[in-house]
């Protein structure tokens, strides 16, 4: 397993990796985006695939608060297109069959209508 080091230098990302010896690569934002997209596309093709189990109720790492999002109908069959903005990866786009979109909508409505865990609890 190689050691990969990343840091920002003068507005660019410096990548150091054992495979390139003492060399380094400086990436501007556009190139970094293309690299991340390329790595993601390749990762989708190798085994093992990421776990399908999320482990609900467990703390998740790297949670981003209140992302920008949009939803719209897909034009061919009317499925849902869900667009989420991730500050690390840019806009991510998901095509959801109507049934899945409906289930997500119901779940989000349920979560939104329930009181927060801190509602009504004594101040600490």
Account of the protein in words:
It is a single chain. With 124 residues, this protein is of the alpha+beta class. It is 25% helix and 27% strand. The radius of gyration is 20 Å and the shape is extended. The model has no long low-confidence stretch (mean pLDDT 84). It contains two helices and six strands. The strands form two sheets. A three-stranded antiparallel beta sheet has the order 1-2-3. It has a three-stranded antiparallel beta sheet with strand order 4-5-6.
Attribute tags:
2 helices, 124 residues, three-stranded antiparallel beta sheet, alpha+beta
Topology, element by element:
Blueprint: E1 4-9, E2 12-17, E3 25-27, H1 29-43, E4 69-73, E5 80-86, E6 90-96, H2 98-113
Antiparallel strand pairs: 1-2, 2-3, 4-5, 5-6
Q: Can you list the strand order of the major beta sheet?
A: 1-2-3
Number of strands: 6
Beta-strand content estimate: 25-35%
What's the pLDDT, averaged over the residues? Answer: 84
Percent range of helical residues: 25-40%
Structural class: alpha+beta
Secondary-structure element order, as H and E?
Answer: EEEHEEEH
Calculate the terminal CA-CA distance, rounded to whole Å. Answer: 47 Å
Number of helices: 2
Major beta sheet summary: 3 strands, antiparallel
Cα gyration radius (Å): 20 Å
Can you tell me the overall shape? extended
Unreliable spans are: none
